[in-house]
Amino acid sequence: MASTAEGLTLRDLGAPVYLPAGVFCVGTGAVAPVIVLSATGLGASPAVAAAVVGLLGLGQLAGALPAGALIARTGEQPVMLGATGLALPALLGCLLAGSVPLLGAAVFLLGVCGAAWGVARHAYLTEAVRPDLRARAMSTLGGVSRIGTFAGPFLGAAAMHAIGLRGAYLVAMACVAVSAVLLRLLPPVPHDRPPAPGGDRPGVFAVARAHARTLRTLGLGILLVGALRASRQTILPLWGAQLGLDPATLSLVYGLSGAVDMLLFYPAGRLMDRRGRRWAAVPAMALLGASHAVLPLAGGVTGLAVAAALMGLGNGLSAGLILTLGADVSPAAGRAQFLGVWRLCADLGNGGGPLLIGAVTAAVSLAAAALTMAAAGLLAAALLHRWIGAPAAGLHQKS
């Protein structure tokens, strides 16, 4: 394998970067649509179940900044190995939870592990891949996650058909264990990270203050992107449950959304590398908004599948978007720390989206929550159009 950013290709990244991440994401994909069902099975209302899913995002919030600091100190691989070590007891906790609070605690820990994985892979690819290949490398990483989202629910559905709801968690535990083995056996990925001058590492908060203008402009748009992406994991199962669909059918609908999603990851990266980031960002957010707007019209499996396919289309077109924009604006000094903060912006949306759905559902209705997220999609499209390429955000349409 090449050892410099100039020499690396997507093929070089396949085994050491994408394979372990793909297996890990199959596991998380298997449990994503059943966390809501686990919560309602323990007696939670739809609003409380949405809040439990939101704890996944809150765990990611809690894990993002420490992950960035740890990566700067120890490197990516030790952080990911630690994350897999924590993910196994988290999944076991989800499986054995006898109450909603215990389930929520396990889901929160699972979110912390996901944040560590995400920041570690992002930091490596930002430094290892040359700029003209960056969006394709990042969208491929996003595509690996989408493949997991596609394959995981189908594996989970098969296991649930055989042994019930716990089957999805057993599939996830097996995948996490395999990803840990791959991390240990595969050769470490090379990078050209320069040492900090004098051995000093800037603190996370110092890096955030230095780049506050970027974070409060483009970062706000990224927050909304995270909210719209996380919404799918909550609102589709809730709407399906409201329609009276069984868990296996819900997993299949969720898998359909993932199938549409994963088909677009490489075209999305190619579009961003060739034409600029806006060309994918703005249409993707508009599509995600539209998919939420049509959800209240879904009165059965067919309508839910149409809304899910639209969500997959918008989500697929945005594959690698957050990663690419973060890499574009990240500084050479304190990069891992900055990317931890950048991940925090996205994860504020990941945690806030389901919580917003839960709050609006409790106060008004699930249909009103869907329309609220539709408005968020339009706002995200407008903000990204405004700030991608704007000098104030420090980002150009191409890099």
TrEMBL record:
Q: How does it sit in the membrane?
A: Multi-pass membrane protein
- Report the SUPFAM superfamilies cross-referenced here: MFS general substrate transporter (SSF103473)
Gene Ontology annotations for the cellular component aspect, listed alphabetically: plasma membrane
- What InterPro entries has UniProt attached to this entry? MFS (IPR011701), MFS_dom (IPR020846), MFS_trans_sf (IPR036259), MFS_Transporters (IPR050171)
Q: Where in the cell is it found?
A: Cell membrane
* Keyword Glycoprotein on entry: no
TM ranges are 21-42, 48-72, 79-98, 144-163, 169-186, 280-313, 356-384
Alphabetized UniProt keyword annotations: Cell membrane, Membrane, Transmembrane, Transmembrane helix, Transport
Per UniProt, residues of the Major facilitator superfamily (MFS) profile domain are 1-394
Quick one: where is this thing mainly located? membrane
Name by which UniProt lists this protein: MFS transporter
Record CDD domains: MFS_MdtG_SLC18_like
Kindly indicate whether the keyword Cell membrane belongs to this entry: yes
Instruction: Cite a single GO MF annotation.
Output: transmembrane transporter activity
PANTHER family for the chain: MULTIDRUG RESISTANCE PROTEIN MDTH, RESISTANCE PROTEIN MDTM, PUTATIVE-RELATED-RELATED
